[in-house]
Amino acid sequence: MSTDGHYDNIKDYYGKVLSSTKDLKTSACCAAEKPHPIIRQHLLQIPEAVLSRFYGCGNPVPLGIEGLSVLDLGCGTGRDCYLAAGLVGPKGAVIGVDMTEEQLKVARNSLQEFEQNIGYKPNMRFVQGFIEALDDIIPSSSIDVCISNCVINLSPDKEAVLRGVYNALKPGGEFYFSDVYADRRIPAHVQSQKVLQGECLAGALYVQDFLRLCHKIGFTEPRRLSTSTIDVTDPDLSDICGNIKFYSITYRLFKLPELESICEDYGQVATYLGTLQGHKHYYDLDDHHQFVTGKPMLVCGNTADMVGQSWLGKHFKVEGDRSVHFGVFECGTGKENDNGRAGPCC
Ligand SMILES: C[S@@+](CC[C@H](N)C(=O)[O-])C[C@H]1O[C@@H](n2cnc3c(N)ncnc32)[C@H](O)[C@@H]1O
């Protein structure tokens, strides 16, 4: 993607062209999935000025983050920061980063009303900056959970963003984010269309290229949590896009150095303790791992690390280590896995 005038176009789109969610021309920046009931309760505490300017495509704020440090990339007017602030509570911390002044102004001006609603001063700040230059803003290894909602597609340098996130995360930290993806590489004539740029479609990443990029950075096994289809209903924009299919996908990328490129079997067993907020009876790690509370589950080495060595660790009991190897972990789905390899996956 060419960067000539790119940032100015995006800043104009979010700072001047759009004044509320109603002004959007496609459904790309509209989260289709229904949030968890606990999230819906927290939404009631967020000022209307923030809620009416929500341009996210998913629900990337995990429950169970009390006391943690959260970073939101491209926070806009701050809906997800406000949600995270309620969930991390007075002992946690939230930082929102965005490049567009007008968006941050709404975010900052809504702080006082939010404080009154929740009854304490949240440890939350909004910083103006580029997500491609996180190292200038966030100390390395300082963040537990990085979130982002419909932003990375807008970046002309996605590799720099992912590198910065990797550096900002603590070991065991996680990048949990929703964004727009395409089923193919976006051709130049679509990339250069200004409305499609602003609406988060022109810069959508081809899923397989995104997975390759994750591997390169060190996010060795991306896990997909949810997927929904995006419809380009405007006839002119749809005509420009042709046969491209767009999706909103929520991925989980863990900073765990021992993750392997495919799932290996070490005979490890993980049991979910039922202690994550809002997940008393079961927990979905991703779209193909549901842990039922109290039920031991045979897992691959990567899943054992994700639930045992990450910020989720205190909510799982993991038995076994990697001292004995039993071969590739067979999950029997026979589907192509997230690494683009046919065959066993987990
Ligand atoms: C689609 S909006 C999403 C805003 C917010 N996450 C939400 O859910 O409402 C994209 C936001 O990303 C910001 N943004 C885009 N590219 C950026 C970049 N390279 N650095 C910092 N912010 C960026 C824009 O200013 C805009 O506020």
TrEMBL record:
Q: Does the keyword Cell wall biogenesis/degradation apply?
A: no
- Would the keyword ATP-binding be found if you checked this record's keyword annotation? no
Give the GO molecular function terms: arsenite methyltransferase activity
* Occurrences of domain Methyltransferase (ranges): 67-214
Q: What is its EC number?
A: 2.1.1.137
Question: One of this protein's Pfam families, by short name?
Answer: Methyltransf_31
Q: Matching InterPro entries, A to Z?
A: Arsenite_MeTrfase-like (IPR026669), Methyltranfer_dom (IPR025714), SAM-dependent_MTases_sf (IPR029063)
- State the similarity comment: Belongs to the methyltransferase superfamily. Arsenite methyltransferase family.
Gene3D superfamilies assigned to the protein according to its UniProt record, in alphabetical order: 3.40.5.100, Vaccinia Virus protein VP39
What protein name is recorded for this chain? Arsenite methyltransferase
State the UniProt keywords alphabetically.
S-adenosyl-L-methionine, Transferase
Q: Which reaction does it catalyse?
A: arsenic triglutathione + 2 [thioredoxin]-dithiol + 2 S-adenosyl-L-methionine + H2O = dimethylarsinous acid + 2 [thioredoxin]-disulfide + 3 glutathione + 2 S-adenosyl-L-homocysteine + 2 H(+); arsenic triglutathione + [thioredoxin]-dithiol + S-adenosyl-L-methionine + 2 H2O = methylarsonous acid + [thioredoxin]-disulfide + 3 glutathione + S-adenosyl-L-homocysteine + H(+); arsenic triglutathione + 3 [thioredoxin]-dithiol + 3 S-adenosyl-L-methionine = trimethylarsine + 3 [thioredoxin]-disulfide + 3 glutathione + 3 S-adenosyl-L-homocysteine + 3 H(+)
